[in-house]
Amino acid sequence: MAWTHYQKILAILMVVTGSFNTLSVKYADKLKSPGQDGEPRAFNHPFMQSAFMFLGEMMCLLVFKIAFCYYNRQANGSVETNTLTKGSRTFNPLILAIPALCDTIATSIMYVGLTMTYASSFQMLRGSVIVFTGILSVGFLERKLGFQKWSGIGLVIVGLLVVGLADFITMKDSKQDTNSVITGDLLIICAQVITATQMVVEEKYVTTRDIPALQAIGWEGLFGFLAISLAMIPLNYMQVPYPFSDNPRGTLEDTIDAFVQIKNNGRLLMAIIGIMFSIAFFNFAGISVTKELSATTRMILDSVRTLVIWAFSLAFMWQEFHYLQLFGFAFLITGMCLYNDVVIPQLARKCIARLFRHRPPPQAQERIVSTAADDVENS
């Protein structure tokens, strides 16, 4: 079935804004700006970045309210048919609180990991969510995974190991830097356990309700922002060593220092604004793609996003190329396709169908053999 113009726009919007979001976060990590002590240093504030991300998601709720009021005033039924507002609005927003809390924890951990590793590895390692989602779905959704899905999970695990090995080999600096990269990779993988929990909870309690995309993102953003804001109070007093912190106070987060750094660097401010707006558009496009097309289409587009981030990182020399990355990416994509029953299984079934289509039935094969034998005897 051919895609509509709206669906094409959603697909492009998801790839562009998703890539821009990850690159904006990494760009902010690489920028140096004077802090409270006047010394220029990298912007190492992953929890503040998470807060800005949820603030961007909160804007979706405002956009939804404006769109709802506008189309509702027209009184022509467009509020029920417009893509921005259609859906059920009779639900308890608290059902989004648990997914939002999971998102808060997972995003914060991932952003800590991103400060230590490469943007492309960050995106590739996020594919490990399939492994944990599959395992949790067996335990909590009572699903039975067949050979194909377990094969996909196995290939994803192999791909993760190859990506981690590539990161280890390409690090040619000090031992501390090598440890930082591996630690960052492990943190990103650990965060996927929480992301998988979020997906299982959403599938069990949220996806059955036809909640408008903007409204769902907005409520999750609100709950997430409240959660990370409360969490940052103790984080501002928690002493940690480098590389988890390099602010003057040596704490896991320093909110005032983060605002001072943003104030002293215009490019850093633009990166933060980019994080806020890109995550809002990306989440809206992602949920809309799932509703308009399918979850497998969303997975494929997310893989395209990984390629864009990887190409950008190589082009701007944010990382060095290593051939193992190609193999790791290939294993990850193949595993994802097998798990989601898309592209590769379909091609395999078509090849098998063609093979049996051109092969004569057993009775015809027996007649062919007997005819050939008679011809031999007559000759």
Structural write-up:
With 379 residues, the chain is an all-alpha fold. It has one domain. Helices cover 74% and strands 2% of the residues. It has 15 helices and 2 strands. The chain has a two-stranded antiparallel ribbon with strand order 1-2. Helix 1 packs across helix 12 (295-315) and helix 4 crosses helix 9 (213-235). The longest helix has 31 residues, at 175-205.
Low-confidence stretches: none
Major sheet attributes: 2 strands, antiparallel
Q: Report the principal-axis shape.
A: globular
Secondary-structure element sequence?
Answer: HEEHHHHHHHHHHHHHH
Number of structural units classed as domains: 1
Structural class of the secondary elements? mainly alpha
Strand elements, count: 2
Give the strand order, joined by hyphens, for the main sheet.
Answer: 1-2
Helix content range: over 70%
Beta strand %: under 5%
Q: What radius of gyration results from the CA coordinates? A: 25 Å
Report how far apart the termini are: 56 Å
- Helix segment tally: 15
Query: What average pLDDT do the residues reach?
Result: 82
